Amino acid sequence: MDQSLRDAALQGNINALYALIKKDPTVLDSIDHISFVETPLHTAASTGKIQFAMEIMRLKPSFARKHDKDGFTPMHIALQKFNASDQNEETDLRRNQALLVNQLLSVDKDLVRVQGREGLTPLHYAAKIGVVSLLLNRGLVDLDARNLEHHTVSDITKRNDNEEIRNLLSRRRGHKCLIARPIEMIEKCYVGIRANNDDR
């Protein structure tokens, strides 16, 4: 990916994105032809740039299913960064990552089923890193999906000995799939966060 495009994604600068598109209308197409690549959506997902990520999703929905060179989709990356942010306090990055996951699912609910490295769906990955509630509360998930090792989310949580997640899964067991929250709820929450951030 071109460094100026990466910088635009890191900063969440939509104006810079369109300036690059004006300069080279194929700038996003050239990335789409590469099988394993960090897209601007991966970059925006890693930094919680929600508006930029949604603009990229609108322009190039295929980027949401692309794997980077490590085998991760933007959804996997957003979950990684959610987990890596300070779990003891509700940081802006943590809130943005949760909202970004929700926004991605609101555009394409099946993203939660896209397998990444080692056949891990975002739900498997969330179980592995201990943030499964983020997807269970927000996305359409298949609790019986298996990774390449034929493990379900329950198998992974047993192996990680996370009793809280096991209890959450057992309560959801009767519901194989859960519906994503309506986009209006997400937008209300996001607008509230933006308003709070603008006051600083």
What does the model show?
- This protein has 200 residues and is an all-alpha fold.
- It has one domain: Alpha Horseshoe (Serine Threonine Protein Phosphatase 5, Tetratricopeptide repeat).
- The chain is built from twelve helices and no strands.
- It has helices at 3-11, 14-23, 27-32, 40-47, 50-59, 74-84, 92-107, 122-129, 132-136, 153-160, 163-172, 183-198.
- Helix 1 runs antiparallel to helix 2, helix 6 (74-84) packs antiparallel against helix 7 and helix 8 runs parallel beside helix 10.
- The chain is elongated, with a radius of gyration of 17 Å.
- The two termini are 33 Å apart.
- Mean pLDDT is 78; it is low at 175-200.
Going by CATH, what is the homologous superfamily?
Ankyrin repeat-containing domain
What's the helical proportion of residues?
A: 55-70%
The total of beta strands comes to 0
Q: What is the annotated CATH architecture?
A: Alpha Horseshoe
Q: Could you give the distance between the termini?
A: 33 Å
Beta percentage is under 5%
User: What CATH first level would be assigned?
Assistant: Mainly Alpha
Mean of pLDDT: 78
CATH level-3 fold name: Serine Threonine Protein Phosphatase 5, Tetratricopeptide repeat
SSE order? HHHHHHHHHHHH
The total count of helices amounts to 12
How would you classify the helix and strand content by structural class?
Answer: mainly alpha
Pfam family, one: Ank_2
Index terms:
single chain; 200 residues; mainly alpha; Serine Threonine Protein Phosphatase 5, Tetratricopeptide repeat; 0% strand; elongated; disordered C terminus; Ankyrin_rpt; Ankyrin_rpt-contain_sf
